[in-house]
Amino acid sequence: MSSVKNPLILRQLFHKETSTYTYLLACGNTKEAVLIDPVLDCVERDLKLLQELGVHLVYGMNTHVHADHITGTGKLKEALPDCKSVLGSKSGARADVYVAQDENVKFGNLALECRSTPGHTNGCTTYVLHEHEMAFTGDALLIRGCGRTDFQQGSPSVLFESVHSQIFSLPKHYKLYPAHDYKGFSVTTVEEELAHNTRLTKTKEEFIKIMDNLNLPYPKRLGKFCKITSSREI
Amino acid sequence: MSSVKNPLILRQLFHKETSTYTYLLACGNTKEAVLIDPVLDCVERDLKLLQELGVHLVYGMNTHVHADHITGTGKLKEALPDCKSVLGSKSGARADVYVAQDENVKFGNLALECRSTPGHTNGCTTYVLHEHEMAFTGDALLIRGCGRTDFQQGSPSVLFESVHSQIFSLPKHYKLYPAHDYKGFSVTTVEEELAHNTRLTKTKEEFIKIMDNLNLPYPKRLGKFCKITSSREI
Hints:
By secondary structure, chain A is an alpha/beta fold. Chain A has helices at residues 43-53, 73-79, 156-167, 190-196, 204-212, 222-231, and strands spanning 8-15, 20-27, 32-36, 56-61, 84-88, 97-99, 104-107, 110-116, 125-129, 134-138, 175-178, 188-189. In chain A, helix 3 crosses helix 5.
């Protein structure tokens, strides 16, 4: 670790009910922090952790507009008025800061590169922390799988292109952290997914066929979510 | 990471039903691996992951005899006959290799130092990976808490001494990985627990009083577990 110029404080946090991962990242030098994909039900936990670690939240970021849980960004901003919400520019929801392809979100001496990875939703964004060789892929890429493409502007063809051009093109040893996992996995690498992803190692045609035949039930919280986003920031 | 002589492959794995963490550690150079606290229900998942990562399991290790879930060590050994089970020498259960204070468990070019941390059970062992500045604390130390002390040779007085002498004495920046978490936390540090552990920052007398008054229900799986350990290796 001593070769890294700017140390990172990283905490992977889990919401059991929706199997959602939230990530707390802080610059070890300046203590400026971001939360990626905070969950409304866990805001009290996350606020306490920020305080205990002595870090200062500058951004509450979302990889996308969530259908399966309600973001905690709005509630975090109520508690920490200096904190700004961040969202992909094509998400179609309210935020303080919209980010597009190749833009950087800075916290302290560290920066997250934004890569547009639509296909699960139009606004899906993968955040890459090059200095620490890792990326936060949201629902675009899950461990051995991917997010569904059958609602919220989903498109298997677009998702396939996104993952191959924006995530699988990263160096093979980069760690990948997803927004969800349902089997108890917490992290993967580009190399692992290139070899073992059950869907994205297929041809584009095969992938589209798989995704068009998943026959998944409608997300439990989608209705609740839509009501909330119409009246408050996500 | 480039300053580390022997790279580590680390995977934190979760069993949702019992909120148990299993750790896969492998030497990045030789690909020899260990699993700490494997869960019976997850053995198929873990075997697949070992295969996908191209690593070779040499030890199935337990931090202690578990009351809240059934270890996967026996089933792993059936699938991988070269693998040996490892357990603290005072655990009172069967294993291939018993480890005592200051012994090392080697996998490839890496080694886990064994520290005896009784108090939750007599045989509780904390495994320290000095080269990567981390320790696996089992149920002796949990994030902001600790394992219960009201059955299986539990003793709050002994646990207090174990944690203070064997875990809190590690360098402050060492990462600590517990065997369970119930609030979605995945990792902590010695420094964090020295400052914020809700029980172990108290005096020994206060700690004993807290632990003697938890009034917890009897573990659901304790009966099942005892039946199994009498007839098979844990």
